[in-house]
Amino acid sequence: MMLGFLNFLLGIPLAMAALGLFADREARLRPRRQLALAAFALAAFYAHLVPYGLLGLGTLLLLDAPALRGAFDAAPDGTPDTKTLARALAADGRHAVRQLLFLVPSLVAVAVWLLRTPAADASVRAGGVGVVAHPEWPAFVSLPRELSSVVLDFPGEQDERALLAWGLCALAALAATRGVSDDARRPRAPWWVFAVPPVVAAAMYVARHRTFAWVWGLTSEPETTWSQIAGRASVVAALGAFAALWIARARIDDAPSARTTRLAWLPAACGLLYMVAPASYGWIWPIHTRFAVTAALVLPLLAGASRAGASAWLLCAVLGATSAGMAGDVGERFARWESSELGDLDAALAHAAPGRRLVALVPAAASAHVPNVPILHAAAYYQVRGGAVATFSFADFPQSPFRYRDGPQRPPRLPPRWEWTTELRVADPEMNYYDYVLARRGVFDEPGQHPDRYTLRFEGRDWNLYERRGRGDAPSGAPSGSPQ
């Protein structure tokens, strides 16, 4: 949300709604259901590729193969002959095509995108053209640290405590549930399956304390007392017990009454993609961390492999209370960020006329209250107020849905990663393009060094606004250099 990826956040529930419609085996082949699924799939694709991929993974998990199952059941020795197996595979293939007809519109959209997007050109980089891109994978030892920074990225311990509360609540719910299978002949898991993982987890923690620091935050102080060691060892052991329960229930039954239990594997599939997917491919970054966020969002699907009964309502109540506390903490942090870091931005932009061009010079410094570098996009607030051109923006990025028209009126092209240095001379070499320069006070005062070119229009606590001298009037009609 802080980076403006609202489309990604909207794509996840779209994909989950589509999977919910597809999960009904009897209704998924009906024309009205297929039309609804096609609309959801198309919306998920245009939201973000990761939610669309999530829909694809879930669909594959939910596909039926009745002919193949029947062939194995009908064989006297449980192994059908080659001819029977081939006929069953052909029948299931035709059945799968009928089930997946709803994907045709979105796959056509994918084909059009692949033919037209600059992403097909491996030599294209953000802000220009560079060397041929190649995939880069993260170091395996950095995966726990990256997971902590991606999923648990708020300063302080609020989200760490919330995640631990969610995990322990899920552990309690699973411990109180029974499996979906009513088959009394199914053997119970042996006792050591439940005992060994928590003991091993606690022993590993005692041997290597800092190895598990990602659980409660890498910035947390190291343990100084035996009570702290015992407390954190108990947390690690609880996580081991949760893993033991997952192992014991890993056999997903395929009973007709349990139509959605296969989706319990979807969080595991997203977690696997987090570990094996590349970190970047040229200007496309990040890649694998998106699957960590997705895995966290779809983690409740693990409960689909069990029947919780009344404990499910208790679980929802406890998780809701925990989430409400975390949401309140997030709202408070946003308020502090707006007052202390965003500061008097509105007052500065009030002195900038609409329909002009503005470049923002902001420091690439992390926020003390919220994740990421939110003021990096301060120029976007001017565009909301009716500005013609606002830099920094993603306009020249190959994946952007819009771009500037080529010609003398377009903004000067920025080199890759300019937003992390924000030099005025690089963004406007002749200092004759941008009408306004918004500068973070006390950090970038480049326009103040050229009083012959810029006039200080606003001097505030956090921001200064400079206006270029002799900028002239904007042309009538569409502003020059406006995006297409």
Secondary structure topology:
Elements: H1 6-22, H2 31-47, H3 49-62, H4 66-74, H5 82-99, H6 104-116, E1 124-125, E2 128-129, E3 135-136, H7 143-151, H8 158-175, E4 178-179, H9 191-207, H10 213-216, H11 226-248, H12 266-276, E5 280-281, H13 288-297, E6 306-307, H14 310-342, H15 345-349, E7 357-361, H16 379-384, E8 389-391, H17 424-427, E9 436-440, E10 454-459, E11 463-468
Parallel strand pairs: 7-8, 7-9
Antiparallel strand pairs: 1-2, 3-5, 4-6, 9-11, 10-11
Measured between the Cα atoms of the first and last residue, the distance is 25 Å
Mean pLDDT: 79
Order of secondary-structure elements: HHHHHHEEEHHEHHHHEHEHHEHEHEEE
Subunit organisation of the chains = single chain
| Count of individual beta strands | 11
User: Helix tally?
Assistant: 17
Beta-strand content bin? 5-15%
Cα radius of gyration in angstroms? 27 Å
Percent helix range: 40-55%
